[in-house]
Amino acid sequence: MGAVVGTLAMQTRQRRPSRDKLDDELELSVVCHRPEGLEQLQAQTSFSKKELQVLYRGFKNECPSGVVNEETFKQIYSQFFPQGDASTYAHYLFNAFDSSHNGSIKFEDFVTALSILLRGSTTEKLQWTFNLYDINQDGYINKEEMTHIVKAIYDMMGRFTYPALKTDTTKQHVDAFFQKMDKNRDGVVTLDEFILSCQEDENIMRSLQLFENVI
Amino acid sequence: AAGVATWLPFARAAAVGWLPLATKIMPKPPVEKKSRNDEILFVNVSGLRFQTWKNTLDRYPDTLLGSSEKEFFFNEDTQEYFFDRDPEMFRHILNFYRTGKLHYPRQECIQAFDEELAFYGIVPDIIGDCCMEEYRDRKKENQERLAEDTEAENATDAPLPPDSTRRERLWRAFENPHTSTMALVFYYVTGFFIAVSVIANVVETVPCRPIKGSKKELPCGEKYSLAFFCMDTACVLIFTFEYLMRLFAAPSRCKFMRSVMSVIDVVAIMPYYIGLVMPENEDVSGAFVTLRVFRVFRIFKFSRHSQGLRILGYTLKSCASELGFLLFSLTMAIIIFATVMFYAEKGTKGTNFTSIPASFWYTIVTMTTLGIRLSKKGTTNAFLHYKEEGGFQLRENETEREMKRDSIHSFTNAADGDGALFLKNRSSFEHQHHHLLHCLEKTTNHEFTDELTFSEMCMTESIGYRTSRSTSISSQQGMSTSCCPRRAKRRAIRLANSTVSVSRGSVQELDTLQVQKPFRPQSRSSLNARTEDLKLNCDDRDFTAAIISIPTPPANTPDESLAPSPAFHSILRNSRSGSFTHETVKISSL
């Protein structure tokens, strides 16, 4: 009896992490991934050795197991957009980064995508963006996919915006996008249409140069 | 934490995905003023040389090693930073920078650890969960011990000041008996009488040999009732005298009367006086007998004479909550089992469990493993049984002038305060983050605001303010609704931490531009920052500018706290413009 009561009494002091989290962490630590050699990565991407070193050190510090899973990815990305809900967009981003589609981003995926986004040619960047928008990877962007993406982006803004978000804001934005991109008015945007339309738009071309020196 | 800083370039790169959707031009990215070459720093702590990347130390700019304060310790001859502190402790400090978690080494003295933390500018609240409880316990223990020691020291003080009144001297004699011979004598006399009184209480119930001529055995108390009465009277007189003297001598009578010892004294002598006053009739004599039980409390008077008893009292007091919980759970169990027993035995004839309170007794006795036997009908051995039947928005002007003014302003600010490096450390991260948010705004053609303004806007939409937009600071708590409640408190503490750091160098944080009127900062942090911040240029220009200052996010690595805790904390400044022609400043809150 005393033991039972003693246990009851001690319960108040202990704080045990939830079982799920514990199991999860154990699992993650078991799976360990090492990236390919530095020279190989250097050849595959357009980063210098030093840059790769800095990138890897940061990556390894955050993810000692060498891979990022979707949950972690969403949480990291959400930290930058505290006002809104960045999880949907992070989900699409994750799929775009995870080129091998195995549910986790390795360092090579990370660096390859960064290489395209920061050091690639405009065509490559646009191709990557098309890949991002094309959720089901069928080579076409239809209105539904675009609506999902635009909604995800607007979700990141959160509820409190100026001017206030109206119910058809998303739809209007998507319509405007299709108006510009869909040249033959067949309801879908193909890669070529996309690239062509973007190249025609000066603003987009100029903005693409903005993120060159992020690293 | 480091995590956020590491992933920012990736988040910015991912912004490329928004570009085709944007209808407006993206804002220019902030200019990188310094090269980002990483270098290895040497830190020499009393001979033990540590080496680390500069970036590692830069992760926490509000500490000594992360800020420019370490330059004061730079040794030109050996090109290293020299600290004349404990090298063993430094290991833990440095690990904090590397991993983002501060651990408390169990073998170290808690005060030494605290001192090191204070020196390096680290707030103890960010100790990781793994070590927090140990740290807190040790700290509490230490504080209690210190309090006791100081108390003891004060008690055995130096000799009295010469010009003290008789009253003070008397009080002193009572509190520290060994100061004067008289006091010592009195101390021993009272002790003796307490012992005598207690023994008398015990002895008077012992059966003595019967008086001549009668067979019945009497307790000694009744046989020698006069003797016992005299002894009792003498003791009570002594105790009363002592109590009155103490009352007279006490520096604060009210406080004395409320203290535990005086209550015990009163309880010890009251029964006697009540007994004197009460008439000798049968009705109240029962109550009187109960009152005599209180005489046994005289034994507690010994706690003035025994340090150990007092310590026992303190121990009980300090674990009062745990004991209380024990009692509570015991009560719960008693009630449950008593109820069960009552309903189980309800049908049986002649049962002892006539009601639930009656079952309590059985349950208590059983749970405390005493055990009683209940009489069953028809059994020969029947025993007598008793019945007793508980972050943010960066709105920068598109013109070049703003950027220039920005840089000029930041230079002047840097020149003002200490730590020009401080400015660069902080603001580059903020710059980039705000640029990212700004791009998002441009993509969606909407701007970030906060709750208050949003509701205001909804109300005033019809009136048609052209440019009057003001934001007020949204509460930090409101932002982070998805975080664990456990973290909320930590964040609040971290908030305070970063607030402190903010006020240290908040002048430099302003990469700002314009503001119309004096700010009315509303967040807690901005109240702190207020005094330093308001050196902004006021101008009558008609545009918005944004001021962001975000202290580097406090220690929180993503893999430890994967709860989405926005580790940022920004100061929102609110400038409300009275007139409609001005635009006000907006700040993003993160």
Description:
- Chain A is mainly alpha-helical and 215 residues long.
- In chain A, 62% of the residues lie in helices and 7% in strands.
- Chain A contains 12 helices and 5 strands.
- Chain A has helices at residues 2-11, 19-30, 38-44, 49-62, 70-78, 87-97, 107-119, 122-133, 143-157, 169-181, 191-200, 202-208; strands spanning 67-69, 104-106, 140-142, 161-162, 188-190.
- A two-stranded antiparallel ribbon of chain A has the order 1-2. In chain A, strands 3-5 form a two-stranded antiparallel sheet.
- Chain A is globular.
- The mean pLDDT of chain A is 81.
- Chain B has 590 residues and is mainly α.
- Helices cover 52% and strands 4% of the residues of chain B.
- Chain B has 21 helices and 7 strands.
- In chain B, the strands form 2 sheets. Chain B has a 4-stranded mixed beta sheet with strand order 2-1-4-3. A two-stranded antiparallel ribbon of chain B has the order 5-6.
- In chain B, a hairpin with a 2-residue loop joins β1 and β2 (48-53).
- Chain B is elongated and about 120 Å long.
- Classes of the chains: A mainly alpha (215), B mainly alpha (590).
- At the A-B interface, α1, α4, α5, α7 and α8 of A face α1, α14, α17, β7 and α18 of B.
- β4 of chain A pairs antiparallel with β7 of chain B.
- Chain B: Its main location: membrane.
- Chain B: Residues 142-164 are annotated as: Disordered.
Features:
heterodimer; A: 215 residues; mainly alpha; two-stranded antiparallel sheet; 12 helices; 5 strands; B: 590 residues; four-stranded mixed β-sheet; 7 strands; 52% helix; elongated; disordered C terminus; transmembrane (chain B)
